[in-house]
């Protein structure tokens, strides 16, 4: 099986959109921050909060997504959206004990240093991450390429320290592969400036795909324009979202139509770490019936942040609006529920299976073979005597669900019995679909009428 594609970026649930900037010339632009918050924050702000003594203290009194960033933090923040980072190669989320590692980039510094998914980072260079946001952890873990960073972690209830050397991590915004059965799979890691261009490229490269699976798991957001562009790949979805700012009438923003479109059955994968722009797209296509959602309920961040930069390089990220589906369905604090609830990690497998079942819906479905050995040989008994010369492997597809087709060869026992033998061991704890197409002919030269499909699970 070709490798599965996993999230590769630091979690961006705190991010949605960057709008035009303003500039000032003060070292600590406190009065400007106060005025921006007073004029543009999504809700009314009390004078008690506005009169606090620093930008960070003011934003601490707002929602979790509003923050005043130093020049270094702001630059790191922008690089993450565009997948340009120097760090250790982990995907992060908040937890009660610190910052939890949700996945690790294969071959990256953290992977080489023994960090695994589920580890909790409690300190970075001695600085506690207790009750800190992911953005604070990212700022501390990131740094100059080649320099060391000391992490205190909890690994399976055991505490230990590990020192890891930072490196530049090269992360694609879009990843794609063709799954077995001619199903296009596209993973969108971030709504970045090049997302639409890259999606267009991979859709054209898979133009013979009959259906598509779009993966937004662990995608925490990006630019508003990118969300509008990506929406434009979905047929018959004219609008992108509805925006509601304080003291303004709700406004519906249109999708930006693309030259190429997704086609056939479309599935969208989501999980609890899909946020912001991911939720915007998910709630929209669900509402329009343009795609079926698989996975778990999303994070529930239905707010938009605007960025205001200052001459010293610092910036204010401020929540200025809430977004809804084009028809007004709320997302904030609610998330988007999937159409098909799946176990964590089984989203691709389930969606792929449903695509194949739809493709072969006229084929006779046999009962699932459960917990078979990885060296399984399939014996097929037919009701009619076949012309043995036609009974070859061209009629057989053995497809790993969530993966690729496995090559097989056929041994003819007699005109009514064949053995289908995979050319490689099947993967343990994985599922497959065996498809027998109606291509073989009987002794009178008449082609078999019905195809067969059979799900197989490997122990």
UniProtKB/TrEMBL annotation:
It comes from the Bacteria. Residues 75-141 form the PDZ domain. InterPro entries: ClpP/crotonase-like_dom_sf, PDZ, PDZ_sf, Peptidase_S41A, Tail-specific_protease. SMART domains: PDZ, TSPc. Residues 1-27 form the signal peptide. Keywords: Hydrolase, Protease, Serine protease, Signal. The keyword Signal applies. Belongs to the peptidase S41A family. This is S41 family peptidase. It comes from Sporosarcina contaminans. The lineage of its organism: Bacteria, Bacillati, Bacillota, Bacilli, Bacillales.
């Amino acid at each position: 099986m070709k490798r599965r594609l996993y999230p590769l970026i630091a979690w961006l649930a705190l991010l949605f959109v960057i709008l035009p900037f303003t500039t000032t010339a003060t070292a600590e632009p406190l009065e400007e921050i106060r005025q921006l918050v007073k004029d543009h924050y999504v809700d009314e702000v009390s004078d008690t909060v506005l009169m606090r003594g620093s930008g960070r203290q003011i934003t601490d009194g707002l929602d979790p997504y509003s923050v005043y960033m130093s020049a270094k933090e702001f630059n790191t923040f922008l690089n993450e959206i565009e997948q340009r980072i120097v760090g250790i190669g982990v995907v992060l989320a908040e937890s009660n004990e610190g910052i939890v590692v949700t996945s690790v980039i294969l071959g990256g510094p953290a992977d080489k240093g023994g960090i695994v998914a589920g580890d909790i980072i409690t300190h970075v260079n001695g600085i506690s991450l207790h009750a800190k946001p992911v953005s604070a952890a990212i700022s501390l873990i990131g740094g100059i390429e080649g320099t060391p960073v000391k992490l205190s972690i909890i690994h399976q209830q055991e505490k230990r320290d590990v020192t890891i050397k930072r490196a530049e991590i090269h992360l694609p915004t879009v990843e794609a592969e063709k799954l077995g059965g001619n199903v296009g799979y596209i993973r969108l890691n971030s709504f970045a400036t090049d997302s639409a261009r890259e999606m267009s490229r991979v859709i054209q490269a898979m133009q013979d795909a009959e259906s598509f699976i779009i993966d937004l798991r662990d995608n925490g957001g990006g630019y508003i324009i990118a969300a509008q562009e990506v929406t434009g790949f979905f047929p018959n979805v004219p609008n992108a979202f509805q925006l509601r700012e304080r003291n303004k009438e709700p406004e519906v923003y249109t999708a930006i139509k693309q030259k190429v479109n997704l086609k056939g059955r479309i599935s969208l994968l989501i999980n609890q770490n899909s946020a912001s722009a991911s939720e915007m797209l998910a709630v929209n296509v669900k509402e329009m019936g343009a795609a079926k959602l698989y996975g778990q309920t999303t994070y529930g961040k239905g707010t938009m942040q605007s960025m205001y930069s200052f001459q010293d390089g610092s910036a204010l990220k401020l929540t200025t609006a809430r977004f809804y589906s084009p028809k007004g369905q709320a997302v904030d604090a609610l998330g988007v529920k999937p159409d098909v609830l799946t176990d964590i990690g089984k989203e691709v497998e389930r969606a792929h299976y449903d695509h194949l079942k739809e493709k072969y819906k006229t084929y006779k479905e046999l009962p699932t073979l459960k917990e078979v050995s990885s060296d399984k040989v399939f014996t097929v008994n037919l009701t009619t005597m076949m012309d043995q010369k036609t009974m070859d492997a061209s009629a057989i597809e053995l497809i790993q669900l969530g993966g690729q087709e496995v090559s097989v060869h056929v041994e003819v026992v007699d005109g009514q019995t064949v053995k289908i033998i995979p050319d490689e061991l099947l993967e343990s704890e994985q599922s497959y679909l065996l498809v027998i197409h109606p291509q073989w002919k009987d002794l009178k030269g008449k082609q078999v009428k019905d195809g067969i499909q059979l799900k197989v699970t490997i122990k």
